[in-house]
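Dear Dr. K.,

Following up on our conversation at the group meeting, I've run the structure prediction for Tc1-like transposase DDE domain-containing protein from Littorina saxatilis. I'm pasting the input sequence below exactly as I used it, so you can double-check it against your construct before we proceed with anything downstream. Let me know if the numbering doesn't match what you have in your notebook.
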Amino acid sequence: MEHNAQGGPNVMVWGGIGLNQSLGPVFFNNLGPGRGNGITAQRYIDQILQPHVVPFFQARRNCVLQQDNARPHTARVTQAFLQHNNIDIMAWPALSPDLNPIEHFWDKLQRKVNQLRPGPRTAAELRQALINAWCNIPRDAINRLIHSMRRRCQAVINVHGGHTPY
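The predicted structure tokens came back this morning:
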């Protein structure tokens, strides 16, 4: 079992949020000993995009995928896969995590899990705690995060790309 720096369990998780909808949490499958735990573009396609994102987007119209600029997201193979599956991608500036609503969602999720006493001691317990916390973040809280994006973008513009209170 992997442990984080604080000695607790560690899992790799992906998720997406949208107005009145969410996708996740999705846990990455462990590749096994000696295979490494880095997320490659192909692993991202095989474990996230193909089984989860493509069906989600096929069932909805007028959706745009917002990702950060992590290497698996920007890799040519990933971009080609998304284009082939008719998934529109929002252009996203580098080094702007304070603008992305999901970053605030991850923070809420982490705070809920960190409040658990006793905390999760195994990866399975952590996965279950994340699922429970995910399901208990109110939909209106997610919608408020998304609706605040214009205000957060304006705050960055107002400080010429500097730090904001978000």
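Two things stood out to me. The CA atoms of residues 29 and 151 lie 37 Å apart. The radius of gyration is 17 Å.

Best regards,
J.T.
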